[in-house]
Automatic annotation (TrEMBL):
It comes from the Eukaryota. This is Protein SIEVE ELEMENT OCCLUSION B.
């Protein structure tokens, strides 16, 4: 679906579905102790086991959180680089040609990392401590 877009556009568009899923997961886990609706959603999504054993899963949550931070840092760098005036960023300019060749690779790994994070969140949701 993104094949017709430039690499910098792909890296900006692709986080949207991931952010929706992660945001819902994070919001429910934060509000589950104080909000009845969040408790109901947590039950539907089978989150009580995760919340109950949150201390043992802290390292996994922290790893996901750190990867998400890095993903958005890389995305921000790509966007800032692409926003530079054309007089500074030209494929013909030797010092600038190298960073331009790395944008597709950085975009690919950023999107792949988002998929890995989503997979980790899904695996956390599927865990059971019975």
């Amino acid at each position: 679906m993104l094949s017709n877009y430039s690499w910098d556009a792909k890296v900006v568009i692709s986080p949207a579905p991931f952010v929706v899923n992660y945001g819902e997961f994070w919001l429910v886990t934060q509000l589950v102790t104080s909000n009845q609706l969040a408790k109901s959603v947590a039950l539907l999504k089978q989150l009580p086991d995760i919340i109950e054993h949150g201390s043992t899963l802290k390292s996994r949550f922290d790893a996901i959180k750190n990867l998400i931070k890095v993903l958005f840092d890389v995305t921000k760098c790509i966007v800032q680089f692409k926003e530079l005036p054309l007089q500074y960023v030209s494929p013909d300019t030797t010092p600038m040609s190298t960073p331009l060749t790395h944008i597709p690779t950085a975009t690919y790994w950023t999107i792949r990392s988002m998929v890995a994070c989503a997979s980790q969140i899904t695996s956390l949701l599927g865990m059971s401590y019975e």
